[in-house]
Structure formats: C-alpha cells, structure tokens
Write a structure and sequence with these properties.
Largest sheet: none
Shape: elongated
Radius of gyration: 16 Å
Strand content: under 5%
Order of helices and strands: HHHH
Number of helices: 4
Length: about 90
C-alpha cells in the first residue's frame, strides 16, 4: 500500500509543480498536454507494482496472502487511473 501511495503522491506533486512552473513561464497552453500524463504515469506505475506483486505468489503462504491483499487495492487503482487517462485524453487531446 505504501508504494502505491508514494506513486500517486509523487505523480500529483510533479504535476502540480510542473503546472506551476509552466504557468509561471507563460506556457499555460502546454497544460492540456501535461494533465493527461498524470493518470498515465499512475497507470504504468501500478502495472509495474502489480508485476512485482506477482512474484510474491512464488513465496510462502504469508507471501501469497500479502500478494492478494496488495492486488486488492492495486487493481482498482489501475482501473480508475486507466479510466481517468482515457477521459483526459478524450477531452483534452
């Protein structure tokens, strides 16, 4: 759960800082290209976390239980970020 929190928080912080810098530099028209990248980065990062969690299924019983628990929040995160990315791409690009 901590890696997913760090992933989502990191992407949001980078997006906010990037938006502030672009607005400060007078390039606010680039924001429509930057906004759809945030859900995409979360989606790709979540896929990588899911792949690393799949390795836990080769471990002991406790590892498999941890993998199921972690996948129970990673899969909804992946689905929501994919939907947000699709909507952002559809409306902003």
């Amino acid at each position: 759960m901590i890696p997913a929190f760090v992933l989502v928080t990191g992407v949001l912080v980078i997006l906010v800082i990037g938006a502030a810098v672009l607005a400060w530099m007078g390039m606010a028209n680039v924001l429509t290209s930057l906004v759809p990248l945030a859900p995409w980065l979360v989606m790709v990062g979540t896929i990588l976390l899911i792949l690393s969690e799949l390795l836990l299924f080769f471990g002991e019983k406790e590892d498999r239980q941890d993998a199921w628990r972690d996948l129970s929040y990673l899969l909804p995160t992946l689905i929501v970020s994919a939907i947000l990315w699709y909507l952002a791409q559809w409306f902003l690009w």
